[in-house]
């Protein structure tokens, strides 16, 4: 829509400093002439920017650039002594819907048309894939495409070292089944992605939550448990962690690899958000510093491209043969046509181009969500400032996340309460918000993300 294009230009001028805070914008009539649009378009644009918090209307005076709000303080990182606890499967609550609860890109950010072209090219060679079982390790073309792609980040590996699976969570599951037994304890970060906690509960593993820090995790506590053999493995996201958005520093990642080697303990690295950084440099995984093969590096296109493809991978290091065998028993590979389409999408450069575009959009999107929440909730919240990924971690003193979640479900609003990210009595005043849907995305005459965020704000303001 023309008014959104006009709004994007004004936002870019504000972000660049060409329109400083509290400066007055041209009148609606003058803006209509400047941008060669109708008065109706100019009015829609200004009102839209006002709703998003970029402009403020002053009666009898005009529209002004909103004074940039001071960044909200980050949520607290509780300090505690790690101990062995038991995760539990949450009660069945039905499939979550809506833009805020599930960490994923909004439909408008997906390169559907470009990927469909890759699917059509794969279909031209369908007989090659329909006449045989797929390779249990993954189609060679996809493994080679992924190896070439990640080499572009300065992270080289051989295609023969990679195993393709059904998404990242499946890659993690196989890694856990290979390296631990029911009843074993696994070291995790705190807070930890609720999906990993549910997986650990399903596999009958116990956990040791390691406190998060501004640099990553408390490596001293981790080493304490490794040295005393309290844990059989570690399971950590290392870049743009879900839910708090923290990335381990390069020194932390290197130290994590050294600890794995020193104590001969497998570390499973869930690196699903690696390619969704908001800057120009993609951080290297801890696997980069792995010299002995104790790190099993897992990833996927579920967050970057399509959750529906269900394609992920693992670089299992010294566990390669066992991992490959585990994948092949009872499973005769993954859909070969899907793998061929993804290999084509990566090999033609479309995946790289998509990532370049979506990273810059996410940076602006995260900022828009932060501004929206801060303008509505003022000084009553602490808010994460992630350097990448799709989610925001919000803390509101006195918030009862369990009660908030109950009320949200009553009105059909999906959110992730903080209590789902721990086995301890922590994060009761926190919640995770997916920021992957643009606030200006329109669907059937509505704006799903913006409307959901306004509903959430209302629930927080009126407990």
Automatic annotation (TrEMBL):
CDD domains: AAT_like, WHTH_GntR. Residues 1-68 form the HTH gntR-type domain. PROSITE patterns: HTH_GNTR (PS50949). SUPFAM superfamilies: PLP-dependent transferases (SSF53383), Winged helix' DNA-binding domain (SSF46785). It comes from the Bacteria. It holds the Pfam family GntR. Gene3D superfamilies: Aspartate Aminotransferase, domain 1 (3.90.1150.10), Type I PLP-dependent aspartate aminotransferase-like (Major domain) (3.40.640.10), Winged helix-like DNA-binding domain superfamily/Winged helix DNA-binding domain (1.10.10.10). Keywords: DNA-binding, Pyridoxal phosphate, Transcription, Transcription regulation. In the C-terminal section; belongs to the class-I pyridoxal-phosphate-dependent aminotransferase family. This is GntR family transcriptional regulator. The gene is ydcR.
